[in-house]
Amino acid sequence: MNGERQNLLGLSRPQLEDFLAGLGEKPYRARQLMKWIYRQGEADFDRMTDISKTLRERLKELAEVKPPVIVTERLSNDGTRKWLLQTGASQAIEMVFIPEADRGTLCISSQVGCALDCSFCATGKQGFNRNLSSAEIAGQVWLAKRLLGETALATDRVISNVVFMGMGEPLANYRNVVPVLQLLIDELGFELSRRRVTLSTSGLVPNMVKLGDDCNVALAVSLHAPNDELRDRLVPINRKHPIRELLDACWGYAKKRNNRQITFEYVMMDGVNDSHVHARELARLLRDRPAKVNLIPFNPFPGTGYRCSPAQRIDEFRQILLDGGIMTTTRRTRGQDIDAACGQLAGRVTDRTTARLGDKLIRQVSSA
Ligand code: SAH
Ligand code: SF4
Predict the structure, then answer these.
(1) What does the alpha-carbon distance between residue 27 and residue 49 come to, in Å, rounded to a whole number?
(2) N vs C: which end of the chain shows fewer Cβ within 10 Å?
Protein backbone atom coordinates (compact mmCIF):
# COMPACT_ATOMS: atom_id res chain seq x y z
CA MET A 1 0.00 0.00 0.00
CA ASN A 2 3.15 2.20 -0.08
CA GLY A 3 2.28 3.85 3.19
CA GLU A 4 -0.80 5.41 1.59
CA ARG A 5 -4.20 4.78 3.10
CA GLN A 6 -6.77 3.00 0.97
CA ASN A 7 -9.64 5.38 0.22
CA LEU A 8 -12.75 3.26 0.77
CA LEU A 9 -14.91 5.56 -1.34
CA GLY A 10 -15.25 4.03 -4.75
CA LEU A 11 -14.65 0.41 -3.79
CA SER A 12 -17.49 -1.75 -5.05
CA ARG A 13 -18.87 -4.28 -2.57
CA PRO A 14 -16.66 -7.16 -3.82
CA GLN A 15 -13.61 -4.88 -3.76
CA LEU A 16 -14.33 -3.80 -0.20
CA GLU A 17 -14.82 -7.44 0.81
CA ASP A 18 -11.42 -8.23 -0.71
CA PHE A 19 -9.82 -5.37 1.14
CA LEU A 20 -11.30 -6.59 4.43
CA ALA A 21 -10.36 -10.19 3.70
CA GLY A 22 -6.78 -8.92 3.44
CA LEU A 23 -7.17 -7.77 7.05
CA GLY A 24 -8.54 -11.16 8.04
CA GLU A 25 -12.11 -9.87 8.31
CA LYS A 26 -15.35 -11.58 7.26
CA PRO A 27 -17.42 -10.31 4.31
CA TYR A 28 -20.27 -9.06 6.56
CA ARG A 29 -17.93 -6.31 7.74
CA ALA A 30 -18.23 -4.82 4.26
CA ARG A 31 -21.99 -4.47 4.75
CA GLN A 32 -21.49 -2.76 8.08
CA LEU A 33 -18.98 -0.34 6.67
CA MET A 34 -21.05 0.42 3.59
CA LYS A 35 -24.07 1.26 5.72
CA TRP A 36 -22.03 3.77 7.64
CA ILE A 37 -20.29 5.27 4.64
CA TYR A 38 -23.19 5.48 2.20
CA ARG A 39 -26.37 5.48 4.31
CA GLN A 40 -25.11 7.66 7.13
CA GLY A 41 -22.55 9.61 5.14
CA GLU A 42 -20.04 8.88 7.88
CA ALA A 43 -16.31 9.34 7.29
CA ASP A 44 -15.02 8.96 10.85
CA PHE A 45 -14.25 5.34 11.77
CA ASP A 46 -14.50 6.19 15.49
CA ARG A 47 -18.21 6.86 15.09
CA MET A 48 -18.93 3.50 13.47
CA THR A 49 -20.00 2.09 16.79
CA ASP A 50 -21.02 -1.44 15.82
CA ILE A 51 -17.53 -2.15 14.50
CA SER A 52 -15.05 -3.57 17.01
CA LYS A 53 -12.55 -1.18 18.50
CA THR A 54 -9.65 -3.26 17.17
CA LEU A 55 -10.90 -3.11 13.60
CA ARG A 56 -11.62 0.59 13.90
CA GLU A 57 -8.04 1.20 14.97
CA ARG A 58 -6.71 -0.83 12.05
CA LEU A 59 -8.95 1.01 9.63
CA LYS A 60 -7.72 4.35 10.94
CA GLU A 61 -4.21 3.21 10.20
CA LEU A 62 -4.79 1.69 6.79
CA ALA A 63 -7.87 3.29 5.29
CA GLU A 64 -9.76 6.54 4.92
CA VAL A 65 -13.04 7.91 3.59
CA LYS A 66 -11.87 10.96 1.74
CA PRO A 67 -13.98 12.96 -0.72
CA PRO A 68 -12.57 15.55 -3.15
CA VAL A 69 -11.90 19.01 -1.71
CA ILE A 70 -14.20 21.86 -2.73
CA VAL A 71 -12.52 24.89 -4.27
CA THR A 72 -15.60 26.99 -5.08
CA GLU A 73 -19.35 26.63 -5.22
CA ARG A 74 -21.65 28.67 -7.45
CA LEU A 75 -25.42 28.92 -7.46
CA SER A 76 -27.32 29.77 -10.64
CA ASN A 77 -30.48 31.85 -10.51
CA ASP A 78 -32.38 28.75 -11.74
CA GLY A 79 -31.23 26.72 -8.71
CA THR A 80 -28.46 24.81 -10.51
CA ARG A 81 -25.32 24.45 -8.41
CA LYS A 82 -21.80 23.96 -9.63
CA TRP A 83 -18.77 22.95 -7.61
CA LEU A 84 -15.15 23.17 -8.61
CA LEU A 85 -13.30 20.29 -6.94
CA GLN A 86 -9.61 19.96 -6.35
CA THR A 87 -8.03 16.82 -7.80
CA GLY A 88 -4.37 17.46 -7.23
CA ALA A 89 -1.94 20.32 -7.57
CA SER A 90 -3.57 22.98 -9.72
CA GLN A 91 -6.01 20.55 -11.32
CA ALA A 92 -9.73 20.75 -10.84
CA ILE A 93 -12.92 19.17 -12.13
CA GLU A 94 -16.51 20.30 -12.09
CA MET A 95 -19.69 18.75 -10.73
CA VAL A 96 -23.21 20.10 -11.27
CA PHE A 97 -26.53 19.55 -9.49
CA ILE A 98 -29.72 20.30 -11.39
CA PRO A 99 -32.92 20.38 -9.33
CA GLU A 100 -36.22 19.84 -11.14
CA ALA A 101 -39.78 19.39 -9.95
CA ASP A 102 -39.75 15.61 -10.13
CA ARG A 103 -36.06 14.79 -9.80
CA GLY A 104 -32.61 15.96 -8.81
CA THR A 105 -29.81 15.17 -11.23
CA LEU A 106 -26.15 15.12 -10.31
CA CYS A 107 -23.78 15.45 -13.25
CA ILE A 108 -20.31 14.08 -12.48
CA SER A 109 -16.91 14.06 -14.16
CA SER A 110 -14.82 11.00 -14.99
CA GLN A 111 -11.56 12.55 -16.23
CA VAL A 112 -9.54 15.74 -15.86
CA GLY A 113 -10.04 17.08 -19.38
CA CYS A 114 -10.75 14.79 -22.33
CA ALA A 115 -8.58 13.50 -25.16
CA LEU A 116 -11.33 13.05 -27.72
CA ASP A 117 -11.36 16.65 -28.90
CA CYS A 118 -14.94 17.06 -30.10
CA SER A 119 -14.94 20.37 -31.92
CA PHE A 120 -17.84 21.92 -29.97
CA CYS A 121 -16.87 20.98 -26.39
CA ALA A 122 -15.04 23.17 -23.89
CA THR A 123 -13.65 20.14 -22.04
CA GLY A 124 -12.30 18.67 -25.28
CA LYS A 125 -10.66 21.95 -26.18
CA GLN A 126 -8.63 21.85 -22.97
CA GLY A 127 -6.92 18.60 -23.76
CA PHE A 128 -6.48 15.62 -21.48
CA ASN A 129 -4.69 15.43 -18.19
CA ARG A 130 -5.60 12.18 -16.43
CA ASN A 131 -8.22 9.67 -15.45
CA LEU A 132 -10.01 10.17 -12.15
CA SER A 133 -9.75 7.32 -9.66
CA SER A 134 -12.86 5.42 -8.58
CA ALA A 135 -12.63 7.24 -5.24
CA GLU A 136 -12.60 10.61 -6.97
CA ILE A 137 -15.63 9.69 -9.08
CA ALA A 138 -17.72 8.10 -6.31
CA GLY A 139 -16.45 10.79 -3.92
CA GLN A 140 -18.31 13.39 -5.99
CA VAL A 141 -21.64 11.68 -5.33
CA TRP A 142 -20.85 11.10 -1.67
CA LEU A 143 -19.87 14.73 -1.23
CA ALA A 144 -22.89 16.08 -3.10
CA LYS A 145 -25.25 14.06 -0.91
CA ARG A 146 -23.71 15.66 2.14
CA LEU A 147 -23.66 19.14 0.67
CA LEU A 148 -27.30 18.88 -0.34
CA GLY A 149 -28.33 17.62 3.06
CA GLU A 150 -29.54 14.19 1.98
CA THR A 151 -29.73 12.23 5.20
CA ALA A 152 -30.36 8.61 5.98
CA LEU A 153 -33.75 9.49 7.45
CA ALA A 154 -35.08 11.56 4.56
CA THR A 155 -37.81 9.83 2.62
CA ASP A 156 -37.34 12.01 -0.44
CA ARG A 157 -34.06 11.77 -2.18
CA VAL A 158 -32.37 14.97 -3.18
CA ILE A 159 -30.25 13.18 -5.78
CA SER A 160 -32.49 10.80 -7.71
CA ASN A 161 -30.40 10.59 -10.89
CA VAL A 162 -26.70 10.50 -11.65
CA VAL A 163 -25.39 11.22 -15.13
CA PHE A 164 -21.82 10.87 -16.42
CA MET A 165 -22.07 14.02 -18.49
CA GLY A 166 -19.50 16.21 -16.79
CA MET A 167 -15.88 16.40 -17.85
CA GLY A 168 -14.33 13.46 -19.62
CA GLU A 169 -15.24 10.36 -21.60
CA PRO A 170 -16.29 7.73 -19.04
CA LEU A 171 -15.64 4.76 -21.31
CA ALA A 172 -12.04 5.91 -21.78
CA ASN A 173 -11.67 5.41 -18.02
CA TYR A 174 -13.45 2.07 -17.99
CA ARG A 175 -11.53 0.38 -15.21
CA ASN A 176 -12.29 3.11 -12.68
CA VAL A 177 -15.83 3.89 -13.83
CA VAL A 178 -17.33 0.38 -13.66
CA PRO A 179 -16.87 -0.11 -9.85
CA VAL A 180 -18.57 3.26 -9.36
CA LEU A 181 -21.53 2.23 -11.54
CA GLN A 182 -21.84 -0.90 -9.41
CA LEU A 183 -21.74 1.18 -6.26
CA LEU A 184 -24.35 3.60 -7.56
CA ILE A 185 -26.89 0.83 -7.98
CA ASP A 186 -25.86 -1.30 -4.97
CA GLU A 187 -28.58 -1.32 -2.30
CA LEU A 188 -25.86 -0.86 0.31
CA GLY A 189 -24.21 1.81 -1.78
CA PHE A 190 -25.96 4.79 -3.32
CA GLU A 191 -29.04 2.65 -3.94
CA LEU A 192 -30.13 4.25 -7.21
CA SER A 193 -32.26 2.56 -9.79
CA ARG A 194 -30.32 1.24 -12.79
CA ARG A 195 -32.61 3.34 -14.95
CA ARG A 196 -31.56 6.51 -13.16
CA VAL A 197 -27.86 6.14 -13.71
CA THR A 198 -26.87 7.28 -17.19
CA LEU A 199 -23.50 6.92 -18.80
CA SER A 200 -22.93 9.23 -21.77
CA THR A 201 -20.38 8.26 -24.39
CA SER A 202 -19.15 9.69 -27.64
CA GLY A 203 -18.90 6.15 -28.97
CA LEU A 204 -16.02 4.00 -27.74
CA VAL A 205 -17.54 0.92 -29.29
CA PRO A 206 -15.46 -1.90 -27.73
CA ASN A 207 -16.15 -0.64 -24.22
CA MET A 208 -19.85 -0.12 -24.98
CA VAL A 209 -20.02 -3.82 -25.78
CA LYS A 210 -18.18 -4.70 -22.56
CA LEU A 211 -20.36 -2.40 -20.50
CA GLY A 212 -23.48 -4.22 -21.65
CA ASP A 213 -22.13 -7.33 -19.92
CA ASP A 214 -20.54 -5.70 -16.88
CA CYS A 215 -23.13 -3.20 -15.68
CA ASN A 216 -25.85 -2.22 -18.09
CA VAL A 217 -27.01 1.12 -16.80
CA ALA A 218 -28.90 3.57 -19.03
CA LEU A 219 -26.87 4.67 -22.03
CA ALA A 220 -26.73 8.03 -23.80
CA VAL A 221 -24.79 8.29 -27.02
CA SER A 222 -23.44 11.58 -28.33
CA LEU A 223 -24.36 11.31 -32.00
CA HIS A 224 -24.56 14.95 -33.19
CA ALA A 225 -24.53 14.10 -36.89
CA PRO A 226 -26.48 11.72 -39.13
CA ASN A 227 -23.64 10.83 -41.51
CA ASP A 228 -19.95 9.92 -41.25
CA GLU A 229 -18.74 12.82 -43.33
CA LEU A 230 -20.09 15.34 -40.82
CA ARG A 231 -19.57 13.25 -37.68
CA ASP A 232 -15.90 12.69 -38.57
CA ARG A 233 -15.46 16.44 -38.23
CA LEU A 234 -17.51 16.99 -35.06
CA VAL A 235 -16.69 13.84 -33.08
CA PRO A 236 -13.25 12.64 -34.25
CA ILE A 237 -13.57 9.20 -32.60
CA ASN A 238 -16.01 8.54 -35.44
CA ARG A 239 -13.03 8.06 -37.76
CA LYS A 240 -12.20 4.97 -35.78
CA HIS A 241 -15.73 3.78 -34.99
CA PRO A 242 -18.10 5.03 -37.70
CA ILE A 243 -21.86 5.41 -37.31
CA ARG A 244 -22.83 1.96 -38.60
CA GLU A 245 -20.52 0.26 -36.10
CA LEU A 246 -21.69 2.58 -33.32
CA LEU A 247 -25.37 1.92 -33.97
CA ASP A 248 -24.83 -1.85 -34.12
CA ALA A 249 -23.24 -1.61 -30.66
CA CYS A 250 -26.21 0.46 -29.47
CA TRP A 251 -28.80 -2.07 -30.61
CA GLY A 252 -26.74 -4.87 -29.06
CA TYR A 253 -26.66 -2.93 -25.80
CA ALA A 254 -30.40 -2.27 -25.86
CA LYS A 255 -31.06 -5.96 -26.40
CA LYS A 256 -29.26 -6.78 -23.17
CA ARG A 257 -31.57 -4.37 -21.35
CA ASN A 258 -34.94 -5.67 -22.52
CA ASN A 259 -34.81 -3.26 -25.41
CA ARG A 260 -34.92 -0.22 -23.20
CA GLN A 261 -34.32 2.90 -25.21
CA ILE A 262 -30.94 4.46 -25.85
CA THR A 263 -30.86 8.25 -25.74
CA PHE A 264 -29.11 9.92 -28.66
CA GLU A 265 -27.76 13.35 -27.82
CA TYR A 266 -27.63 15.86 -30.62
CA VAL A 267 -26.14 19.31 -30.04
CA MET A 268 -27.88 21.84 -32.29
CA MET A 269 -25.38 24.09 -34.06
CA ASP A 270 -26.45 26.84 -36.41
CA GLY A 271 -25.80 25.94 -40.05
CA VAL A 272 -23.74 22.88 -39.11
CA ASN A 273 -26.00 19.90 -38.36
CA ASP A 274 -29.48 21.41 -38.03
CA SER A 275 -31.06 21.36 -41.52
CA HIS A 276 -34.27 19.58 -42.53
CA VAL A 277 -32.16 17.19 -44.59
CA HIS A 278 -30.12 16.29 -41.49
CA ALA A 279 -33.31 15.69 -39.53
CA ARG A 280 -34.73 13.35 -42.14
CA GLU A 281 -31.43 11.51 -42.40
CA LEU A 282 -31.39 11.07 -38.62
CA ALA A 283 -34.97 9.82 -38.56
CA ARG A 284 -34.06 7.16 -41.14
CA LEU A 285 -31.12 5.96 -39.01
CA LEU A 286 -33.20 5.51 -35.89
CA ARG A 287 -36.59 4.42 -37.28
CA ASP A 288 -38.10 1.34 -35.62
CA ARG A 289 -35.23 1.11 -33.16
CA PRO A 290 -35.19 1.44 -29.34
CA ALA A 291 -34.07 5.04 -29.63
CA LYS A 292 -35.05 8.49 -28.47
CA VAL A 293 -33.39 11.78 -29.31
CA ASN A 294 -32.46 14.58 -26.96
CA LEU A 295 -31.73 17.83 -28.78
CA ILE A 296 -29.27 20.00 -26.85
CA PRO A 297 -29.07 23.69 -27.72
CA PHE A 298 -25.37 24.43 -28.25
CA ASN A 299 -23.87 26.20 -25.24
CA PRO A 300 -21.18 28.71 -26.14
CA PHE A 301 -17.78 29.01 -24.45
CA PRO A 302 -14.90 31.42 -25.02
CA GLY A 303 -13.11 30.89 -28.31
CA THR A 304 -15.73 28.70 -30.02
CA GLY A 305 -16.70 29.39 -33.59
CA TYR A 306 -20.13 27.73 -33.29
CA ARG A 307 -23.48 29.32 -32.55
CA CYS A 308 -26.65 27.72 -31.23
CA SER A 309 -29.39 27.03 -33.78
CA PRO A 310 -32.32 29.45 -33.58
CA ALA A 311 -35.19 28.17 -31.42
CA GLN A 312 -37.49 27.85 -34.42
CA ARG A 313 -35.04 25.63 -36.28
CA ILE A 314 -34.74 23.37 -33.23
CA ASP A 315 -38.55 23.11 -33.13
CA GLU A 316 -38.71 22.23 -36.84
CA PHE A 317 -35.95 19.64 -36.45
CA ARG A 318 -37.83 18.09 -33.56
CA GLN A 319 -41.07 18.05 -35.53
CA ILE A 320 -39.46 16.21 -38.45
CA LEU A 321 -38.14 13.56 -36.07
CA LEU A 322 -41.53 13.24 -34.36
CA ASP A 323 -43.22 12.91 -37.76
CA GLY A 324 -40.70 10.18 -38.52
CA GLY A 325 -41.87 8.29 -35.43
CA ILE A 326 -38.84 9.14 -33.25
CA MET A 327 -39.50 10.20 -29.68
CA THR A 328 -37.70 13.54 -29.31
CA THR A 329 -37.23 16.06 -26.53
CA THR A 330 -35.31 19.33 -26.35
CA ARG A 331 -33.09 19.76 -23.33
CA ARG A 332 -33.77 22.87 -21.33
CA THR A 333 -30.56 24.77 -20.78
CA ARG A 334 -29.75 25.05 -17.10
CA GLY A 335 -27.12 26.95 -15.18
CA GLN A 336 -25.81 28.87 -18.17
CA ASP A 337 -25.20 32.01 -16.09
CA ILE A 338 -22.60 30.10 -14.06
CA ASP A 339 -21.13 28.20 -17.05
CA ALA A 340 -22.61 24.96 -15.75
CA ALA A 341 -24.48 23.94 -18.91
CA CYS A 342 -23.56 20.90 -21.05
CA GLY A 343 -20.18 21.26 -22.66
CA GLN A 344 -19.21 24.33 -20.67
CA LEU A 345 -17.38 22.53 -17.89
CA ALA A 346 -13.79 23.52 -18.07
CA GLY A 347 -12.45 22.90 -14.58
CA ARG A 348 -8.77 23.48 -14.55
CA VAL A 349 -6.40 21.40 -16.59
CA THR A 350 -2.71 22.02 -16.42
CA ASP A 351 0.25 20.03 -17.67
CA ARG A 352 -2.07 18.75 -20.28
CA THR A 353 -1.25 16.42 -23.07
CA THR A 354 -2.95 18.51 -25.68
CA ALA A 355 -5.43 16.33 -27.45
CA ARG A 356 -3.87 14.99 -30.57
CA LEU A 357 -5.73 12.85 -32.93
CA GLY A 358 -2.98 10.60 -34.05
CA ASP A 359 -4.06 6.97 -34.27
CA LYS A 360 -1.90 6.27 -31.29
CA LEU A 361 -3.88 8.41 -28.94
CA ILE A 362 -7.22 7.16 -30.15
CA ARG A 363 -6.05 3.59 -29.71
CA GLN A 364 -4.77 4.33 -26.24
CA VAL A 365 -8.06 5.91 -25.28
CA SER A 366 -10.33 3.23 -26.65
CA SER A 367 -8.47 0.35 -25.12
CA ALA A 368 -8.18 1.94 -21.69
N1 SAH B 1 -17.75 12.45 -23.05
C2 SAH B 1 -19.11 12.08 -22.92
C3 SAH B 1 -19.80 12.69 -21.73
C4 SAH B 1 -19.52 14.12 -21.39
S5 SAH B 1 -20.15 15.35 -22.47
C6 SAH B 1 -19.86 12.38 -24.19
O7 SAH B 1 -19.33 13.08 -25.05
O8 SAH B 1 -20.97 11.87 -24.34
C9 SAH B 1 -21.92 15.35 -22.12
C10 SAH B 1 -22.75 15.88 -23.29
O11 SAH B 1 -22.55 17.30 -23.50
C12 SAH B 1 -22.40 15.20 -24.61
O13 SAH B 1 -23.55 14.82 -25.31
C14 SAH B 1 -21.68 16.30 -25.31
O15 SAH B 1 -21.68 16.10 -26.70
C16 SAH B 1 -22.44 17.52 -24.88
N17 SAH B 1 -21.75 18.77 -25.19
C18 SAH B 1 -20.43 18.97 -25.34
N19 SAH B 1 -20.18 20.27 -25.64
C20 SAH B 1 -21.36 20.91 -25.67
C21 SAH B 1 -21.76 22.27 -25.89
N22 SAH B 1 -20.87 23.21 -26.11
N23 SAH B 1 -23.08 22.56 -25.85
C24 SAH B 1 -23.99 21.60 -25.57
N25 SAH B 1 -23.67 20.32 -25.33
C26 SAH B 1 -22.38 19.96 -25.38
FE1 SF4 C 1 -14.81 14.49 -24.56
FE2 SF4 C 1 -17.46 14.23 -24.50
FE3 SF4 C 1 -16.33 16.66 -24.76
FE4 SF4 C 1 -16.21 14.89 -26.79
S5 SF4 C 1 -18.08 15.85 -25.93
S6 SF4 C 1 -14.53 16.16 -26.03
S7 SF4 C 1 -15.99 12.97 -25.69
S8 SF4 C 1 -16.19 15.31 -23.01
Answers:
(1) 18
(2) N
Residue 54 Cα to ligand 1 midpoint, Å, equals 48
Residue 116 Cα to ligand 2 middle (Å):
6
How confident is the model at residue 352, as a pLDDT?
44
For the chain, the 3-state helix, strand and coil shares in percent, each to the nearest 5, are 40, 20, 40
Active site positions, annotated? 94, 342
Residue 110 in contact with ligand 2 by CB distance below 6 A: no
Q: Which domains does the chain have, with CATH numbers?
A: 7-64 (1.10.150.530), 96-110+141-338 (3.20.20.70)
pLDDT value of position 156: 67
Atom of ligand 1 nearest to the CA of 298: 23
Note the pLDDT tens digit of each residue in 151-164. 655 556 799 999 99
| Closest ligand to residue 237's CA | 2
Query: What's the whole-model pTM score?
Result: 0.92
* Residue 86 CB coordination number (10 Å): 14
DSSP letter for each residue of 53-117: HHHHHHHHHHEE--PPEEEEEEE-TTS-EEEEEE-STT-EEEEEEEE-SS-EEEE---EEE-SS-
How many Cα atoms occupy the beta-carbon half-sphere of 331 within 13 Å? 22
The four Cα atoms 122, 361, 368, 222 give a dihedral, to 10 degrees, of: 40
CA of 292 to the centre of ligand 2 (A): 20
